[in-house]
Amino acid sequence: MPRPFRPHPQAAFAYTLRQRHPALFMEMRLGKTLVAIRRCLLYKPLNPMLGLRVLVVAPGSALQSWKDELQAEGQDEPAALTGERSLRLALLMYANANWFLINREGFLSLPEIAIKAIRNWDAVILDESFIRNPRAKVTKFFLSNFRDCPHRWMLSGTPNPENDMEFWPQLAWLDGQAFGYRTFWDWRAKEWQPDLQGYNWYPLPSTTKTIRDTLAKRVYALRRTDAGAEPTKETIIRILEFPPEIRIAYDTAEKDFVLSNTETTYAIVKYNWLRQLCGGFDATKPLKVWDGKLRELLDLITGELRGIPTVVWFHYNQELLAALNLLIASKIGCAFLYGKQSLAEREGQRQSFQQGKVNVLLVQQAVAQMGMNLDHADTAIYYSQTPSAIATQQTADRMLSLNKKTTLLYIYLLVKDSIDEDLHEALKLKKWSSNLSLVHAIKEAARARQA
User: Fewer beta carbons under 10 A from the terminal one: N or C of the chain?
Assistant: First the structure.
C-alpha cells in the first residue's frame, strides 16, 4: 500500500502537476523528496523502450536518503554514480536503471552526465540548491547544460542563506532567465546598489518587490512553523576556561599572530589556530595541549545524557578522533562519520546509530550536514561549530521528524573569552542579517576583548 501524503506534501504535489520545471523550497522533513519521486514517476519517458531516466544531483550525505525513499516507493535500486571514474562512466553508459544518483561535485570527474547521446534525461533534480553562486564552476556547469531536458527540478530547504541574490541562479536553472534578465550580471548592475566600498550589494525597493512577487507565483515554499511541524527546542551553553598556560598562548596568538614560536601574517591562519586551540589542539605542532572539552563531553555522555541518543558535531577531524579514542577507552559504544570513510562505511555507521545499537554518534560536520536522517537523536552537542549559518542550521535539522513530539536539546561547548563565543554570537546574528560579514563580526569581537 502506498504511503499516504500528508496535507502539505499533497499541496506541493498539486503544484508540481502544474509546473514543467518545479521548485520546492520546503524545509527539512516536510516531504519534498517524496513529492519529487511521485511526480517524476508520472512523466512520459522520452524513450518508452528504456523507460524513465531521472538524474538526481545531491550532497553526498543525502544520497542514501534518496535510496531509502526510492526503495519505500517500490523502485528498483538506483545507479549510484560514485567511486572511481571508470566505474561511474560505465554505470552512466550501461546501467539499466531508472534513477541515477550523483553527488554535487560529481560533474567534475563525470561531465558526461550532460551529454544527451549518453543519457537523454527525462528529468534532472538538483537537491539542496547548491547553484547559488554565479561564479562557481558547479553553477556554470548546470546553467550551461540540460537546457533541452523536459523537466528540471530545484529542491531546497534554505534557498537564500546569504542574501536574495542567490535566487537568480536557481530560477535561471529552471527557466533560462530570472526576474526578466538572462544574465546575473545584468540583473545585479540594474537592480542592485553597491555600498561605498563595493563589497556588499543591496536591492532597490522595486527589486525586493519583484523578487517576492516572482517567488510567490513561481515556487512552492513551506516552512516547518507554517506546517505545524516545528518541535520545541532548548539550548544550553556550557562555558569552559583555558588553563593558565593555554590562556597565555591563546591571547598571544590572537594579539601578536604567534603560536609556539611560529609566526604568521595571515588572519585566516591565526583564525584556525585559535579555533583549534579551543578544541584542545596546537595546530603548529600539531598535538593535543588540553582536554577541557573532551572531559566535558565525557561527563555529559556518562552523566546527564547517559542512555540518551546523542549526535556530537565537530568541525575538525582531529577533534572527532580524539573524542572517539576517549569514548573507546571509556568503554562507551559509539558510531562515527568523517571524511576518510567510504559512503558504504558511513551508511553502516549511521544505521548502527539509527537502529539504537549505540547511543552516541560522532560526526564531522561537512560529511553529514545535508540530507542525512539522524532523527533517532533528540540531543545534539556542538564540540565545535562550523563558520556557516546555513551549515549550522542544517546540522540542527538532522534530528527533525514530522512524528517527533519531544523537545530537541542543543548543547554548545564554548571556551570563555575566545573565538568560540565570538563565532557562536556571530552565527546567531547572521541568522537575522544575511549581509553581516562573519569575519568582520569575529574581528570586532576580538578587538573589543583586547581593548
Answer: N
The three state secondary structure string of the chain is CCCCCCHHHHHHHHHHHCCCCCEEEECCCCCHHHHHHHHHCCCCCCCCCCCCCEEEEECHHHHHHHHHHHHHCCCCCCEECCCCHHHHHHHHHHCCCCEEEEECCHHHCCHHHHCCCCCCCCEEEEECCCCCCCCCHHHHHHHHCCCCCCEEEEEECCCCCCCHHHHHHHHHHHHCCECCECCHHHHHHHHEEECCCCCCEEECHHHHHHHHHHHHHHCEEECHHHHCCCCCEEEEEEEECCCHHHHHHHHHHHHHCEECCEECCCHHHHHHHHHHHHHCEECCCCEECCCHHHHHHHHHHHCCCCCCCEEEEECCHHHHHHHHHHHHHCCCCEEEECCCCCHHHHHHHHHHHHCCCCCEEEEEHHHHCCCCCCCCCCEEEECCCCCCHHHHHHHHHCCCCCCCCCCEEEEEEEECCCHHHHHHHHHHHHCCCCCCCHHHHHHHHHHHHHC
**What are the structural domains, with CATH classification, of the chain?**
7-227 (3.40.50.10810), 233-450 (3.40.50.300)
Rounded to whole angstroms, the Cα distance separating 383 from 411 reads: 9
Predicted pLDDT of residue 405 = 64
Prediction pTM value: 0.68
Residues sharing a CB contact under 8 Å with residue 136, sequence separation 6 or more, in sequence order: none
Q: Do the beta carbons of residue 242 and residue 421 sit within 8 Å?
A: no
SS3 418: coil
CB atoms within 10 A of CB 100: 21
Residue 437 pLDDT:
46
Place of cell 531546497: 156
Cell numbers standing for residue 50: 528504456
CB atoms within 10 A of CB 270: 21
For cell 501524503, the residue is 5
- Give the whole-angstrom CA distance, residue 385 versus residue 370: 15
pLDDT of residue 341: 86
C-alpha torsion angle, residues 15, 17, 23, 28 (rounded to 10): 70
Are 236 and 409 in contact by the 8 Å Cβ rule? The answer is yes
Say which DSSP state 254 is in. Answer: H
Q: What is the mean pLDDT of each run of 10 residues along the chain (451 residues)?
A: 74 95 86 94 94 92 84 94 92 95 94 94 92 95 97 90 90 97 96 85 94 94 73 83 92 90 90 93 89 92 87 94 95 92 89 94 84 84 86 78 71 91 80 46 62 59
